[in-house]
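Ticket opened by: R.M.
Priority: normal
Category: complex prediction / small molecule

The reporter submitted a protein together with adenosine monophosphate and asked that the result be attached to this ticket for the collaborator who will pick it up next week. Submitted input follows.
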Amino acid sequence: MFVVFIGPPGAGKGTQAQRLVELLNVPHVSTGDMLRQAISQGTDLGKQAQNYMQAGKLVPDELVLEIINECLDDPRLQNGCLFDGFPRNVEQAEALDQLLANRNTPLNMVLELQVETQELVRRMLARKRPDDTSETISERLIVYKNQTAPVLQYYAERNLLTAIDGTGTPDEVFARIRAATGR
Ligand code: AMP
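Result attached by the on-call engineer:
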């Protein structure tokens, strides 16, 4: 099962993604985690991605698509995975469709975690990640609204999108996610 998990920064997507991969029993593909790992390892990819990430901007599509393409070659992903933090714009969504179509394994479902902006800012300021300064937080929210929100429209038009209310305790949110997956 190939599932895309989308949500604004600070929506609690990381926590829910951990639980969701266990529920679905598929590998977790988080482009943010892979990029942070590349930065900490000092790879070429990390060096190229670093400035964008620190500014809260999207890393260029070609870098991200290279990571995803390589990932999809892994035999462990043959039967599915959870894409977390990807796709972040319509170009990436189109590229993913193409990559999955080439493998005859189209996307099964897209889950969108919904949380109000005020609550997102409150949560991000509380988690103290190095790329969570008030400037990058507002930049990432703008990027989400301008570039990632159109991805939701893209999937809605393809009847793949289910919106999940992301407010409440982690258990409450996960119960809604679980219901949406039918598991
Ligand atoms: P995340 O952990 O998903 O919030 O990602 C952290 C940062 O990594 C983002 O603010 C972007 O700079 C970068 N990033 C992660 N995934 C992508 C993607 N699919 N496309 C472009 N940039 C990304």
